[in-house]
Amino acid sequence: MADAPHAPNGDASPNTFSAKDVPGPGKGFRVGEYVIDRSLGHGSMATVYLARDATGHEVALKVFQEGPGVSATMLERFRREAEASKKLRRHPNIMKVYATGHEGSYHYIVMEPVHNSRTFDDCITNTPMPIEDVVGVIIKIARALHFAHTRNIVHRDVKPTNIMMDEFGEPLLTDFGVAALIDWPTCTITGALTGTPLYMSPEQARAERAGPESDVYSLAVVLYEALTGVLPYSAQHAAPVKNVLDAVKNELPKRPRSHRKDISPDLEAVMMKALEKKPEDRYPDAEAFAHDLERALAGRHVTARLFSIKDRLLFLARQHDKAVAAGAAMLILLGVLTTYYQSKINAARYDALLNLAQLRSFALRMAQSERADSIMRQQAGAWPEIRIARRAMNRADWNTAAPLLESAIRLCRETGDTRTMAMAQLDLARLLSVTGDAEQAITLYREILANPDASPPVQNHALLEALILTLLNDQRQNALELISQHALPADNIFRNAILCLSGEMTIDRYQEQIAYLPRRLQNDAQMAIAIRHRMDGNQRAYTQQLRRTIQNSTPANDWPAPLARRLYEEAAP
User: pLDDT of 180-229, one tens digit each?
Assistant: First the structure.
């Protein structure tokens, strides 16, 4: 068998690849002793591939490539992740790392491949988990964090997507890309934020130093969301970053039991202590947090609160529940007899008062229930339905995704959340494009373009995709109206795609720029070139470009691959 191509070490050769030739290493590409099989996913700094080592065993290979646009800070963070991963490889709940290395412009980390894995975010979003199972996962991750802290490593980005669940249901802590190595000099600019805003601690939101207590806070936010379905603040996933940071720094967390009554008071106390605004008021370390969670699950007293005489009496009552139950039954019986004889004397007056009190109590409970439901609905918003719909679209399950997106749009209209509504409309327009309802899709795209609250990326996608649909349906007059009614995007990525579609930029010139685009936008560019070939009457180049768009999509249903697949099936002889 011929040798696989290897990572370049200076001089170009027939067996080497460059960033200009391909978007990234493909099947058969060699980095060190590892030969790439296929891509598994993309992160903010690197791409993870399924590869094989010299003995033929499968490994997960995380590759970071130096090149234009790659800062020294990004390279330093990847080096820190590699160093942190090597120090922590022995813990059973931290992703196993076999080796790290560097060849040419490629830096890599060799990890254990985890088959049939899901993120913890997928688990808590798609399938409700019992409280005991959720807390069990958090306990294991807390001990993994404590293991890292004792080796002078602070994760700084604990969130549901950085916790993987393997095929046996065991949690694995991943992604130490922004970890702080205490015995290394800092690579973070003074005053810069580290972490994900919705899960970061107040001190991180203030751009202050993050310590082990910061990871405890972030893990408590993950636990809160997993149990209640919402974050502990009024700001949720669709909120602007400024509002999120203000909430993290200043807003006191809402009590978990206000969302879910089957959370025990002890478990609530543990969560509230871990979510204290001041680091010194939280648990001293992640092991103490895990220990208190175990005590809460076992129904034992936790260290998270001081117990009054009333609390101690309740604890004794739980210990001697049979004797207390018998005494309570006697007291109830005595009370019933006393009430019975008193009611005979004052029947009319007491009946009237009792009926009035019951009516008032019922009216009060109904008002409180309606108000609580309204608050919960407003806090959660339409985002959970959008997330489930997107997962259905990734499976090409259009029948499941369509009603979810339509419901999300209605909810956004009711609550006035027009920014989130634009995101749901973009997803629904794409779905309609695939299922053949081009006119309704174009109508949705026009609504997005007329929405002043829609974010610039959403509007840019809407304009480009509306132009593609109108040109596919030979509505060139409508395409000209779209361009004349809306200014060209300031973002050169979308501007050049529209110039290519309008004929003001040649296909060859535009194709030269594709290799330098962010990977998530390269397929949009390939789709624009395909439509340009169709307009020029080059059917062969049109179908070839559609096939390239489909083949380069990772995952397989990443937009615009579903539309390209439908067009290719219609165009193929």
Answer: 554 444 444 334 456 689 999 999 999 898 999 999 999 999 999 999 99
Sign of the alpha-carbon dihedral angle for 406, 408, 412, 415 = positive
Q: Give the separation between CA 268 and CA 8, rounded to whole angstroms.
A: 55
Whether the CB-CB separation of 425 and 448 falls below 8 Å is answered with: yes
* Phi, psi of 248, deg, nearest 5: -60, -40
pLDDT per residue as tens digits for the range 511-533: 888 777 776 678 888 888 989 99
Annotated catalytic residue, options 157, 175, 215, 427: 157
User: What does the alpha-carbon distance between residue 316 and residue 565 come to, in Å, rounded to a whole number?
Assistant: 67
Q: How far apart are CA 166 and CA 164, in angstroms?
A: 6
121 is catalytic: no
What pairs with residue 91 in β-bridges?
none
CA angle, 524 then 525 then 528, to 5°: 90
Beta pairing class for 30-31 and 58-65: unpaired
C-alpha to C-alpha distance for 102 and 79, rounded to whole angstroms: 10
Q: Is the peptide bond before 555 cis (omega within 30 degrees of 0)?
A: yes
Q: Which of 266, 244, 144, 148 is nearest to 193 (CA)?
A: 244
Taking residues 152-178, report their average pLDDT: 87
Phi-psi sector, 88: left (phi>0), alpha (psi -120 to 50), beta: alpha
Going by C-beta distance under 8 Å and a sequence separation of 6 or more, which residues neighbour residue 313?
none
